[in-house]
Structure formats: structure tokens, C-alpha cells
Amino acid sequence: MTRSFEKVGVVGLGTMGAGIAEVFARAGLGVTGVEADPAALERGRGHLEGSTGRALAKGRLTEAERAEILGRVTFTTSLEDLADADLVIEAIPEVMDFKRALFTDLDRICKPSAVLATNTSSLSVTEIAATTARPGQVVGMHFFNPAPVMKLVEVIHTVTTEDGLAEEVAALARRLGKTPVSVGDRAGFVVNRLLLTYLNHAAVLLENGLAARDDIDAAMKLGVGLPMGPFTLLDLIGLDTSYEVLCVLFQESRDRRHAPAPILRELVTAGLLGRKTGGGFHREEEPGGPPPTAKPSVGSVAVLGEGAEELAAKLADAGFKTASAEAADVVVALSRNPVIELAAGLPRPERLVGLHLVGDRIAEVASTALTSSEAARAVEGLVRIVGRTPVRCKDRAEFVVDALLYPYLNDAVRMYDSGYAAIEDIDSAMKLGCGYPSGPFEMLDELGLETVRDGLRALYAEYREPSFAPAPLLDQLVTAGVRSIRDLP
Ligand code: 3HC
């Protein structure tokens, strides 16, 4: 029997729940939105009115369409109103005890044929299903923030899910205009396992003082083309949610990269949860970034390393005097690797600054322990003169972009190698769930497997973090001379 999903219930109308309710209503389904109390219900209604109001203001919806969408949603504080729903999805806080209590109630209230779904970010769907007398009809349906915009829905089945149900829920996701990726029940599923590990890594690097918040954000946005830097995204997701997801990941993996960075705990405890509280890593009242500095006053510049001629020519065109390393006031060492060894060999090592050009929009400006602040500032200015955004950082293996990107790519290879998800599914999940310009396997092909493998080796040598060691599959592919993981038989 194929189910028909016409009436749905959404329990919890916070950012995600309200977004999910909007998605169902836009697709023509009748929605009953449930919140715990009248005040929360009004906030939920406000989310829906605000979101559809913005679409109206942008001309994406007409007044009549908006009224029709809102007219399909009924608001209530009583779970009993879900008795005749065909599917109920919950988007309440990520606390297992809350979810278990809710599913026990839903199991009692909802008609026997109803499917119960959870939008949990990482908790065990199997455990949630086990609290009901219908574990075969419980699935995960994981949406991404902002739900009306992001195209991905992860459909999670458990060992007890009825045959065929995951496909029916995937078909429902397609009817909503989404792309489903079906996976088994593992902490963090595909996206959060890869994404939160990377976001947490960014927070750890921030705590370690590798680079400042805005530098790291700019590095990943402009250097990799991600829609948001890691701290802007953490603020969007919510630091409480991010913290909870990481705790669940850590509990399962015992991998210390999943242990939430202490700064997350601190901000959450301070009530700075991100956008929803008006402040997290970024605060609303903060003034904009510093204005670009004027042309730096530098006597003469020496440029060393691969690509030195091109950069020196650009600087000369901009009116700077170029000279040899011995004669110059500032020495720029173009390098993918730390430059301290080079600096230590110079008579005045405080003049040397490492520079790594990433893509065509940013340049990582690496200061060694010996670099003077004047030299670093001068090179930041030079970077702006040649039309790039400087990303200030310490002189560490792989600087910022590659230090964050390569472990993420390595994790994707491990995920594929574990048999959890297919290459195409992982690629589409990251593109459609997070708006990445390309999936991790596409990025690997573009960067070259050997480059990434070597970068991971350098990271491992620097930080001695076991999971930075190249995934055995990656190592083997490079050794075998295979150019793309897709070429595997
Ligand atoms: N609700 C509804 N629509 C929204 C919205 C919201 N909260 N925020 C943005 N939009 C719409 C805008 O109205 C606009 O629509 P239009 O194209 O029809 O005019 C469109 O999205 C683009 O928005 P903007 O022009 O304002 O801004 P951007 O182009 O910068 O896009 C973004 C904003 C879509 C959020 C983009 O920055 C992005 O894709 N960021 C990455 C988000 C991400 O990674 N999400 C996943 C997080 S992980 C998660 O949710 C899982 C959980 O379990 C933790």
C-alpha cells in the first residue's frame, strides 16, 4: 500500500520547525503546527508570517499565494489535534528525553497508519523509534537551515523501518521540491558529521590563535567559495544546537575532534547562541570591519618563491620598489609551507612574511614568531593593493584554508570507505544541504589527490592529530597513480 501524505503535523515551531511547516504548506499540504504554550505558538506564527512576508516583499509570492500558504497552517498547543495526521514531524530541542516523551505521546494520539518523523540533527532515530509501538513507521527527515531554501532532506531509516517506507518519504521530499538522500542511522548522518567536525575545527583553531574570527570566515568564504564562513554559519545554526550535535558525535566516536571547542561551551553558557539571540561569535551591535588601509609605505620589497616574478611585477606596476632579499625592507616568501626556516636564515628575519595565494580572492599572510608587526601590516597592505583580501595567520602547516579543508575531505573519504554513503550522495548532500559550490569528491578531483594527501601528511606532522593522517584509501589511490576516486572499479 502506498501512503498518501496530505495532512501533516509539525511539533516545535522554532526556526527549523516553522521553516518545515512553511515547506509543507507551500507544497499544498495541510499543516497543523504545535507548540508547547501560547507564547511559543505566537513566535512560531511570527516566523512563518515573517518568512512569507519577505518572499512577498521580494515579489517571490503574491498576496493571494501568501494567504493561501498561511491558510493551510493551523496553530495549536494541543498534541491531540494531530490525531488524523498522515505524518508528524518533530523539530523540538535536541534532548533525547524530550524526544522520547513526545514520541510516546504521538504514538498514543496518532492514527495507526501515521508515520512519525524526527528532524533530529544527530540523535539516534533507532532509539526514538524504540519508544513507540510502531518502530517500523518511524524515520528521520532531516531538513537544513533555512528549511525553505536548502534543497536537501536526509531520509534516515533504521533497522526496524518498514520496507519501502524510506522510499515513500523520499518521494514526499521530492514533492516538497527537495532532493532526498537516504542513509542509515549514524550520529550526524552525512552532513552534520562532516560539517560540524569542520566547524568545530575552525573554533579550535580560533581558540589556538591561528587566526582571528573574521580572517577564518573570509578564508573559507572567499578562498573556497563557501556561502558563509564557519563562524557566520555556526551563528546561523545556533551554538547550542552545534554544541549538542558535537556532544552526540563525540559520544559515538570518542574522536577528540568531535569534542566541542571550549569556546562553544562558554558562549552557550553565556546565552550567546547565535542569530536567534542576537549574538554568538558575531554580535549584532558590532561595527563593520576595519576600513581598508591606505597604500602601505614600504621602501622596497623582495618577493621569493614560486610565482615571485608575477607578484613582483604587479607590485612594481603599483609603484613599489622591488629589490633583493638582502636589500629589501620587507621580504615576501610565497609558499604553501611554513617559512620560519627561511626567516631564520636571513640577517633580519623580522622582515620576512609568508604569503600563500589561494584562488584569486585571498592571500594568507603568515607571520612567524620573529615577524615584526610592521612587516606583517605592510604585506597586508600589499595584498590589498594586488586586489586580494588578506587572511592574517600564524606560520603553521597549511595555514588556514587547507588546514580546515583537507581534514574535511579526508573525513569524506573515510565516510565513503566505511560504506555509509555513496560518493554522489555525499557530494550532493554537501552541495544541497550547505550550499557548497562543489562536493568533497569534486573538490578532491579539482585539487588533486596527491596534493591533499601531502597536505594531510604535513598537518599530521604538525599537529599529531591521528585523524589528520591521510585515510588509507586516499594513500592507496595516490600510490596506485589513480587520479580520481570515481575511477575506482
Ligand atoms: N527563510 C527563508 N528564506 C530565506 C532565509 C530564511 N531564514 N534566509 C534566506 N532566505 C532566502 C532569501 O529570501 C533569498 O531568497 P530569493 O533568492 O528568493 O530572494 C535566498 O534565501 C538567498 O538569501 P540572501 O540573498 O538573503 O542571502 P544569501 O545569498 O547569502 O543566502 C543562505 C543565504 C541561503 C543562508 C546562504 O548563505 C547559505 O546557503 N548558507 C549556508 C547555510 C547552511 O550551510 N545551512 C545548513 C546548516 S546545517 C543544518 O541546518 C543542519 C542542522 O541539523 C544543524
Hetero groups: 3-hydroxybutanoyl-coenzyme A
Largest sheet: 8 strands, mixed
Q: How many runs of DSSP E, i.e. beta strands? A: 14
Distance linking N and C termini: 37 Å
Please tell me the CATH architecture of the largest domain by its name. 3-Layer(aba) Sandwich
CATH class of the largest domain: Alpha Beta
Domain 3-hydroxyacyl-CoA dehydrogenase NAD binding: 7-185
Family: Belongs to the 3-hydroxyacyl-CoA dehydrogenase family.
Pfam families: 3HCDH, 3HCDH_N
Region (Disordered): 278-298
Which descriptors apply to this entry?
single chain; alpha/beta; Rossmann fold; N-(1-d-carboxylethyl)-l-norvaline Dehydrogenase, domain 2; 4 domains; eight-stranded mixed beta sheet; binds 3-hydroxybutanoyl-coenzyme A; 3-hydroxybutyryl-CoA dehydrogenase; oxidoreductase; 3HC_DH_C; 6-PGluconate_DH-like_C_sf; NAD+ binding
Question: What would your notes on this structure say?
Answer:
The chain has 489 residues and is an alpha/beta fold. It has 4 domains: 7-185, NAD(P)-binding Rossmann-like Domain (Rossmann fold), CATH 3.40.50; 191-277, N-(1-d-carboxylethyl)-l-norvaline Dehydrogenase, domain 2; 300-394, NAD(P)-binding Rossmann-like Domain (Rossmann fold), CATH 3.40.50; 400-419 and 430-487, N-(1-d-carboxylethyl)-l-norvaline Dehydrogenase, domain 2, CATH 1.10.1040. The chain is built from 19 helices and 14 strands. The protein has helices at residues 15-26, 38-57, 63-71, 96-109, 125-130, 165-175, 191-207, 213-224, 230-237, 239-253, 262-269, 308-317, 340-344, 373-385, 401-417, 423-434, 440-447, 449-463, 472-479; strands spanning 7-11, 30-34, 73-76, 87-90, 115-118, 138-142, 152-156, 179-183, 300-304, 321-322, 330-334, 352-358, 362-367, 389-394. The strands form 2 sheets. The chain has an 8-stranded mixed sheet, with helices on both faces. A 6-stranded mixed sheet has the order 10-9-11-12-13-14. Helix 1 links the parallel strand 1 (7-11) and strand 2. Helix 15 (401-417) packs across helix 17 (440-447). The longest helix is centred in the first third of the chain and has 20 residues, at 38-57. The chain is elongated, with a radius of gyration of 25 Å. The model has no long low-confidence stretch (mean pLDDT 96). The site of 3-hydroxybutanoyl-coenzyme A has 21 residues, from helix 2, helix 7, helix 9 and helix 16.
